[in-house]
Amino acid sequence: MASKGAVPDNRTLPSKEAGLFRQLAKQYETKQYKKGVKNADAILKKFPEHGETLAMKGLLLNCLERKEEAYELVKRGVKNDLRSHVCWHVYGLLYRSDREYDEAIKCYKNALRMDKENLTVMRDLALLQIQMRDLPGFLETRQTLLELKSNNKHNWISFALAHHLNGHHEVAAKVLESYAATVDEEGPGSNSSEAYEHSEMVLYKAMVLEEGDGTAARRLRDPLGVKEQQARLLLALGRQEEAEVAYRRLITINTENYQYHAGLQAALRLPAAAANGSSEAAGGQQQAEAALSEEQRARLAGVYAELRREHPHSVAAKRMPLDFLEGDEFVAAADSYVRKYLLRGIPSLFTDLKPLYNSSSKAALLGQLFERLAGSLRVNGTLPPLQEDSSSSSSSSSEQQPAPQALVWALFYLAQHHDRLGRTSDALRLVDECIEHTPTLIEAYVAKAKILKHAGDMESAARVADAARRLDLADRYLNCVAVKALFRAGHTELAESTAALFTRDGEQANNLFDMQAMWYEVGSGRAYLAQQQYGKALKRFLKVQQHFEDFQEDQFDFHGYCIRKMTLRAYVSMLRMEDRLFAQPTYLKGISGAIHTYIQLHDRPAGGQAQEEEALLAGMSAEEQKRYRQKKRKEEQRKAKEAAEAAAKEAVEAAAAAAKKGDKGEERKKKDADPDGEQLAAVADPLAEAAKLLRRLREHASDKLAVQQLSFEVGAGVWFCGMLDWVCGCSLDLKS
To answer: How much is the pTM?
Structure first.
């Protein structure tokens, strides 16, 4: 007879305990973690070495933030039942919750060795493989899932997607065709959802074939997407005349889409740089202008004159000619274009024309044009007569009517014009004239703050930005501008209190973190780094890393959802965007700030803070030293008192929330145990931490100059430390 606590085959439970075990999975899925732990304890009371129950209890404790106990129990469970796929699956779920995806994949594969046809484990494995971009493994897993359950639509679509991502375009198209052959043709009784899914699948197939140099034609439910794809394919096939017709039709649908205009220019056999010379992509504008012949310019001018006649309200049709016209024609077209902005008081005019400043000749012509407009407004209060422009339609007579309000906007543009050209004194004179003309013009204060920032006067820039904020205390954007300026000027406390005006009381740090305000974290991190408050600087910079890791983690929500909803083109686009995630400029700013902080921590001598304080005290008199120590002691007492009050308040709130919400209280946010980042700054080897952060930057953004500079700085520090250790070792050898 088996002794008490023994389990037949080390796995089988009696009916009562087996029923409790089945409830564990449901309680895990419904987030009833505490009830699940109680049921697990009831089983373990009789069968303390039951591996699967130990593993499930560990999984439930992990959800209750008791990670050490969780890992210990799951490891015991795996040890007691090595051949249980449940134990290995749970072990993988634990690793996945801690974002240790490689270890989780190993556990899932071990689970599949025990149960080769477990669909749940396979689906979890496929999610991790696509998350880690293990494309060959993803393809293999999806093929197995399709073989096991070929009547599932999602398995077919996912298998085709796996081939597509692996570059097997023809195979992916054949898989989609094979699946379509098993589905009845769309009948009159089909609902709109099924029709949309069918349309999306066919469009996705067209996308696959487009990337693999093929075409597709079926019944489609996204006519605009079809027309865009047809235009791209015609252009890629060299059928320029047909592509021109296709892009003209698209421009008729949306006259303000600059991609359509770029496609039209490419269809007109213009150089590639010219096709990208719109206001949205002006990087190669000078090269485009040099590449255009007079014949091409004349043809483009005629095309856009025709477009303006067909679409008189199109802004793009009036703006695009400024990219390729030159000389008097450019001045006439610009004169016609800017008047509406001046008369209506549209502040974004300079932002719109800023790409034209890549050409020094056009920058000079724009300056002369606005000087002429401002001069006429100063003297007569009206705009001068419109210059003749053979490529533009006739202007309305209202532009010659009295328009004294346009003067301030002409001066506003000129101030930004001179600032862009580095003429700070002229820019300040003009923006002051704007403020004198209209003291309540908020945009003028913001522009003045930017001019002062570009001139290097951060203190004055912060003062002016704060003045702009006070003109409209309900404007969140102005608040953000003021906070950034205050951080740049080093006024960290004032910047923090200003930012807190738009956050919930007492929750500023959490509120800004939840809103993912990375501009705030980068700005505050730089300010604290300049003040050598390394802990606070690291705390801010590393929050940027947390945000981007959350963005990467958010992919999990879409791996299954997009397949179910058949949004395949958007899904592929999202995957490719995520592949470029860690090359984003904001990530580079945050991580480079953290790396510079670690480098400064490495360069700081041991006991640096104590030495700095000693040097400060050495320069004081005895009375000043006494006052300094008293002030420091009071500050420490105040911080200790505030920490105690905050802890007591937190305990009361936690108890009240737990009593009110029961199990929901488990989801309450944990209090930050290191709000000032002191533990982060106390790292033993700062250069090693910097090298860890740099590794990902070099993998995803190695083409950035800033990354190469950081690599040199970190590498030089590591090399110097290595040489120092070698020299010390040699000296010890010589002494011995």
So the answer is: 0.68
